[in-house]
Amino acid sequence: MLIDDYLAYLSDVRRCSASTVRLRSSYLTRLAAEVDLVAATALQLQTWIAAHPQWTPRTVNAVVATLRSFYRWAVEAGVVSRDPSTWLRPVKLVDVDDARIASPEQIAAGLASGRLEVRVVTMLGAEGGLRVHEIAKLHERDRDGQWLSVLGKGGRLRRVRVSPELGAALDELRAKHPDAGWYFPSRGGHVSTQTVRNWTRRELGTNPHSLRHRAGTTVFKRTGNNLRVTQVFLGHASVATTAIYVHVEEDDLIEASAASRLAA
Fold first, then answer.
1. Where does the record place the Tyr recombinase domain (predicted)?
2. Which end of the chain is more exposed for a tag (fewer CB within 10 A), N or C?
3. What is the pLDDT of residues 59-82, one digit of tens each?
């Protein structure tokens, strides 16, 4: 019941995405099976996290974020008198930037795919900057001619311009599933985010989030390094988050070296 109340808060008050709610539900349910959530101590939380060495740094950080969010809510709701998650710290991520942006070869592979769905996913991610869950749940009602209305994290709505090539591909996809409503239909609704990940990993050799990183980096460079435009394009609440998506590549370093050259 306690977890259900928290999840309802995330969904109804914070307006978090369904994927975020499911993820946090999974972590809290696993924790509750081993630790009393109300009586938990900081040491118990740290010990529980340490008992899962198979978790990647990103997973650990997602767990820490979940516990911090849950206990902040629990304190405000009067469920607990203290916050045992205060001492939890995220893991520092090292040397991950280069691996998180799709290469031109990977994008070319996606656009050359014999599967229409993969081609559309590639364009939505690398051109439109959509997150994987935004791609999976894209519906025909989200499109108004040359624009897509995309509901992202935190209930933030943004508009994404549809290029002629993407528009034609979306039209073709709708013609393939005329009665579904969803652009990527599955039994009883739309495909899962895992299905989209499987498509890109199998045919592009990368994850769909790397396509979004490509979109953010490209928009930043082609708008004259306008971080604010890039922020709105990606639907971020913070410019600091957007900065993570702006990758420094070899040609940028060459330009930097030329700019700083002492010789005339």
1. 97-258
2. C
3. 888 899 999 999 999 999 898 899
